[in-house]
Amino acid sequence: MSDIHLLTFSISPFHFFVNKDFIFCVLFESSDEISISKGPLLCYIISGIHYGEGIRMEIKRGELFESLGNLRKSFFYIIGAVILFGIILFPFTKELLRHLHRSLQEDLVAYGIPEAFLSLIKLTLFASLFLSIPIIFFYLWKAFSPLFRKRGLESSFFVPLVAMFLFYSGAAFCYFVTLPFGIQFLMSYQSATIKPMISVAKYISFCVVFIFAFGLVFQLPLILALLSYIRVVNASFLTRNRRYAILIMAILSAVLTPTPDVFNMALMGGPLYVLFEIGILLVKIIEGKRTASDHPSSGFVEK
């Protein structure tokens, strides 16, 4: 490697070697040897991630750019779906706000003449985006699925369905469980000298941010499974670093929950940990199938 001029840097647990031709990524605590393939403009985005057996998986720049190009073509369909749902939902926005307001026992106020109207527009946009999630996931997977099908992912049609189920499960958990408890906790601090005047715009933003955040966080097991297919993570790495994962989940729970109390953090952290363990189980299943396909059992038939 002496003839290769490299820029090196680390983002634990990965180490990167960069020159004008490629980006080379190695996972720590895996392999002691690093092999680099030279070639004109190889430009590996992810290359040479080693596990104990020296397995390497490459995602070439051309593959990634092709997927991004496919996503760009689908962008107009996604925007069209959001606009269409927005037109359909706008007459029902006041009813949506009434349902969103159920967790709050105080009246909402509008600071300024246009705030009420603009708040309804904002709620319509978020509601249409919420209903467009299946279409968004479908086109995202349509763009990036070739990367995974080439690496052994079968029955890929179920991936957007699973993503949709996880997103709406997380959103429902937030709306029916976490958000009411969080709002009740925060409103308990009002007193005779402290009377809340809650802006309708800020209340909508407060609720919607947490609902979408929970929906996205619930994608964790699916993300781990997909990363396993391109060999970015493996079960031993996730198990070995479980304590760091728990720390990250605790921080996420503190950030994503509407209140800093332990109870609401547990309402978020508990499902997150369960999803993480489900993700590890899925990764183990994927690795087991990969091992079986890479090393098929040999046998013979007695005559």
Structure, explained:
The structure is a single chain. The chain is flat. The strands form three sheets. It has a three-stranded antiparallel sheet with strand order 1-2-3, with no helix packed on it. It is mostly helical. The chain contains ten helices and seven strands. Mean pLDDT is 76; it is low at 1-5, 27-57 and 298-303.
Strand content: 5-15%
What series of H and E elements makes up the topology? EEEEEHHEHHHEHHHHH
- What is the total tally of β strands? 7
Helix content: 55-70%
How many individual domains?
Answer: 2
Question: What is the radius of gyration computed over CA atoms, rounded to a whole number of angstroms?
Answer: 24 Å
Which stretches of 5+ consecutive residues score pLDDT under 50? 1-5, 27-57, 298-303
Largest sheet: 3 strands, antiparallel
Major β-sheet strand ordering: 1-2-3
- Euclidean distance between termini CA atoms: 55 Å
Global mean pLDDT: 76
In DSSP terms (H or I, runs of 4 or more residues), the helix count works out at: 10
